[in-house]
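Please, structure for the following, as tokens.
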Amino acid sequence: MPLVPLRRLSSATTSGSRRIACRWLLAGCGLIVLHGLMVGAIKADDNAASSEWIGYTEGRNDLPGGQFDNWITQRACLVRTDGTQRQVLAEELVTEPHSWTQFAGWSPDGRVAIIGRHQETPENAAWEREHRTFRMTEGWLSDVILLEPESERVRNVTEIERVSNYNSGLFFLPTGKGFGFTALINGISRPWIMDADGRNKRQIAEDQTGFAYGYSVSTDGSWISYHQDYQIIISKSDGSERIQVETGQPFNFVPKWSPDGEWLLFVSGQHYDCHPTIVRRDGTQLRKLADRGGYRGVVERLKHPDFHSESSDVPVWASDGLSVFYTAKVGECIELMQVTLDGVVRQLTHSTNGVRHYHPSPSQDHKWLLFGSDRSGIMQLYVMNIAEGSSQAVTNVPPGSCAMHGHWRPVAKAP
């Protein structure tokens, strides 16, 4: 099915390892969108997932020239969960050479899509491939774009009073107070906040010198968390009362707040051998929830792998906060799993040898799970009825392409 441009949606249709960590999350579009008061979004059918919207990223994965050649084909897209009304978003963002877009999430009320817009010079890409490392201090321009699908209004909030040429990981602060994001400055990635108009950008905990990423805020806006030099940090939203979670492990990655703001979920262990772990927001009651069975925790997208072309595949909270979805190696497959907070594991998929599942994402109503799979021989997105285990395809990308990083559009709730 060919891509088509965005059309208005009517109410009827409605340095080394540090740089690798930063790019790993760019590739994964790691983003935390807070659950809050949701009004004015498109209302979905309570009894079916087919009326809901999914934002995702689509692009080539078979070009032999390396990850840069494939990445510049990537586009942020929108589709119904029954596979209809597929659209490419904000094509005006990629009119300049060597630029691409990635779908990165939604505002809590579903009115605004979050899109990463990236551009790199071929010369810098060639240098990176030759040296097998990232050089994001030059040759890059990465911003976070806010798009209103109904009006097609586009705002680049990270270019306003710009602090960095490489910005990512934007999320909405509670009660419309603005945004959090991550900016790379002099090769060091640090958490920032800004007002809702993109102005008054200020750094969190300016005295910190470590490489910080995976930045998110609790549902009430009081607490933030991120990993700094692969150690989990929790603090007040102004950077005070800082706690480092003592896991005893060298690699701790991408903390995510539970819906009630009481727990953090992250992976912990050795690099490429790390497992779903939770901790209270005061740093207590640390425990490993499940084992990934030897899964490296990354999914390779390219038919011709490059020096760091894998995408991080991290666990996510269930919408009710009572369990966690993750992926694990079972035999020769990467399967979808669910684990309760007391460690009861359920295997959701049972696949033929070699099949990989990736990037699980639960729906708001706890009934459906969006995920990626190469079960057909092509990396497509699917939706599963969690209770029944049945699933259906959402995307229909052609051979030589892949669909990644699906995000449910939040559905309106009564005040």
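The chain has a mean pLDDT of 87. The domain at 17-408 is CATH 2.120.10.30 (Neuraminidase).
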